[in-house]
Amino acid sequence: MVPPFLTTKPLQACKFLGVAASAFVLIGIVFEIVPIGSITVLFFVPVVAFVLAVVITAETVLAGYRVVQKGTSLAERSSRDPVYSVVRVGEFLFALLAVGAFGVLLVLLPDGPMSGPGALGLFYILVGLSLLILFGSLVRSITEYVRFRRGKST
């Protein structure tokens, strides 16, 4: 039997699964449970996080389009459930901030080959930005689940 949350909110359930998978891989790498045979294993978390950022952006644009189509004001919609609105905006801002910071970082990188410590520092920044996206998505998914359990749905 499929859990009701999965059928009612499939996007949030999939985002939560992506965050959970990333957390398990990251914890496995840190505690050396997951063997690192190749450096590509290390890029799992940033790739999942930036795919989530694209999904979050598309979801926010679609939600904004729906608000405009219904004709309700954004202030009226936010006043119905301010905590949910803050969480939703926070998720989008975390994703936007992380992608924007990564873009600025790419522009500021010097041309030519990079030394090992410099590349490692860049990788740590990339993982940090990824964790920002994953944290925002996790908070939103938990909020959606709590709202689902209480019977509130948007």
Give a structural overview.
By secondary structure, the protein is mainly alpha-helical. The protein has one domain. The protein has helices at 4-8, 10-30, 44-70, 74-80, 82-108, 116-150. It is globular. The two termini are 24 Å apart. The mean pLDDT is 84.
How many strands appear in the DSSP assignment?
0
Question: Helix-strand pattern, N to C?
Answer: HHHHHH
**Low-confidence runs:** none
The mean pLDDT is: 84
How many separate structural domains? 1
Please tell me what the overall shape is: globular
Q: Helical residue percent?
A: over 70%
The N- and C-terminal alpha carbons lie at a distance of 24 Å
- Largest pleated sheet: none
How would the blueprint of this fold be written?
Layout: H1 4-8, H2 10-30, H3 44-70, H4 74-80, H5 82-108, H6 116-150
Index terms:
154 residues; mainly alpha; 79% helix; single chain
Write a brief structural summary.
The protein is mainly α. It has helices at residues 4-8, 10-30, 44-70, 74-80, 82-108, 116-150. The protein has one domain (4-150).
